[in-house]
Amino acid sequence: MRFSQIAALAAACSWLMLSGCATPTKLAFAKDTTTPPKSNEPIFLMTATLRNSYRTSHQLRLLIVNVDRAGATDRAGRLNFTIDDGAKSETDTADGGNSYYLSMKLEPESYVMVGFLAQNRSFPTVTTYFVPLHSDLTVTGPGVFYLGHVEATLRERTGNEFKAGPTVPLIDQAVGGASGGTYDIEISDQWDTDKPKFLAKFPALNGVSVTKTVLPPFDRAKAQDWWEKH
Questions:
Q1: Taking a C-beta distance cutoff of 8 angstroms, is the pair 87, 34 a contact?
Q2: In this structure, what are the phi and psi dihedrals at residue 103, rounded to the nearest 5 degrees?
Q3: Overall average pLDDT of the 93-112 stretch
Q4: Burial (Cβ within 10 Å: 0-12, 13-18, ≥19) of residue 116
Q5: What pLDDT, on a 0 to 100 scale, did the predictor assign at position 230?
Q6: What's the pLDDT at 22?
Q7: Which is more confident, 75 or 84?
Q8: What is the band of 19 on the pLDDT scale with cuts at 50, 70, 90?
Q9: Three-class secondary structure assignment of 65-100
Q10: pLDDT of 95 strictly over 90
């Protein structure tokens, strides 16, 4: 592994974990896409499209969905849902972005959906990105819930807007647009179009009732404040 790759991963870890690495966690249907969820399990579905309109040859590949238990201070309180082949859309979007179908099993508790860790490997550079969400989520009981669709478009930043990723390693992060870019992020209800795709990818959901619990709109001021403090 090149030094810049190691530096990029180290920067990503410090960017997201702050006081220790998180617990790697598989998506709900990573191992079994056909067995229906158990009646006592809370499972949350969401879709995400990540697009780089600033450095179009460096599109983001989602690696991790970072979810923290409320007030988390250690590894046990931080969950890294790792992206598997089943979560990736069969085809990229027409304009170069990448789409993902996510399923997360969470115990009843209060959480913060911190954001997405993504990466682009375009030889000889490796760029690491962080897409902020900072969305509160309270899990009260079992069921299957739809959190909505996240549309994150990386564009050139102006002024002191939060950066699209860590600053170092300097060359890799600049070339891929992480240090010179920021995001426009929209969270919306796309269940009508997401539902048939989820059912096709994860037959386990066929016949299962899904409740819509769409996350609130992206709070740019909150993301800006978090970035300035970290």
A1: no
A2: -140, 120
A3: 90
A4: buried
A5: 85
A6: 81
A7: 84
A8: very low
A9: EEEEECCCCCHHHEEEEECCHHHECCCCCCCCCEEE
A10: no
State residue 76's pLDDT score: 82
Tell me which residue has tokens 């891929």: 176
The CA–CA distances, whole Å, from 208 to 31, 42, 57 equal 19, 12, 39
- Cα four-point dihedral sign 160, 166, 170, 175: negative
Cα 177 to its chain centre, rounded Å, is: 18
DSSP label at 193? H
> Going by C-beta distance under 8 Å and a sequence separation of 6 or more, which residues neighbour residue 77?
68, 69, 71
Dihedral sign for Cα atoms in the order 145, 151, 157, 163: positive
How confident is the model at residue 4, as a pLDDT? Answer: 42
- The closest alpha carbon to 151, from 109, 99, 73, 114, belongs to 99
